[in-house]
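Input.
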Amino acid sequence: MRAAVLHEIGQDKLEVLDDVEAVGFGPGRVRIRVRATGLCHSDLSAMGGVLPQPAPFVPGHEGAGEILEVGEGVTRVKPGDRVVVCWLPACGACPACKRGQTELCLAGFMNAGTPNFRRPGGDVFGFAGTGTFAEEVVVDAGCAVPIPDDVPFDIAALIGCGVTTGLGAALNTADVEAGSSVAVIGCGGVGISAVQGARLKGAAEIVAVDPVASRRESALRFGATRAVPPEELPGAKQEVTGGEGFDYVFEVVGRSATARTAYENTRRGGTLVVVGAGAMDDHLQLNMFELFFDEKRILPSMYGGGDVLTSYERTIALWRAGRIDLAGLITHRVPLAEINEALDQMRTGTALRTCIEI
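Output.
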């Protein structure tokens, strides 16, 4: 079958090969025919070594498709079912799951160290234990979440990561208060989803911050009340909050510099939500006096900060009701053979989300 493979960490191009085999099928596992997958910035981060991932590997973790085959003991799905790929399935038995913090379950991360694919030259891993830049993937049954027939594969793929992460940051982690002021730093697919979440919660002012003009324009269409490049954030802070700072600031870039900016633009007693996935050696510096004196809440948001399955269902309900726009997030479409074009669209910021049609 065909799959896009990164041979070594640090390479900036993927090679689309037709000699890749999905492996690992057996009890408790399912084989999925991938129909659509989104390109998330985390894929680029893994390719560049920012996020830890063994190589060679097939990127992609935001996908949807059809069940081809189920292993012994699998009862939740059957061949022919439409599913979204969940890269962070909950085991239901660990301490995090028992506390209701299923987004902190480590079972999914354990899958990342087991090869999902094989080539004549040896094993190939799947990013985050999945690897959806391939025609087929074999994953644990818990990674295959059934979706209703009326949800298109491209929409379902977005729900698999970016939309759930951004919406959840506003709805679950921050629980944005109606009438509040919000700033979102970084307005790709995840940031725009955070904008939509803040709008749903009734935020009075939503300032979108991004260096790319087209993304700022998109943010306004999705519910931002104003959109500015980073250098104009201080002026927006003054105009919207009288210089006090925003009630909520979402950092959706994953860098210490933007997290520091987010902290400085959060009002005293306000909430900074860290959504971006950054590098282990990139340290955010805060002094002990400001932590004490400002009393700002710093809330990391992992995969939307809530039960993933509940979040999927909520997102589908909101989409059906026309309360959120998911189709509009897909600004570009490319076939798997042109995957490197999608990478360029992400790197230049010209795309909110590129759908790779497989």
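The mean pLDDT is 96.
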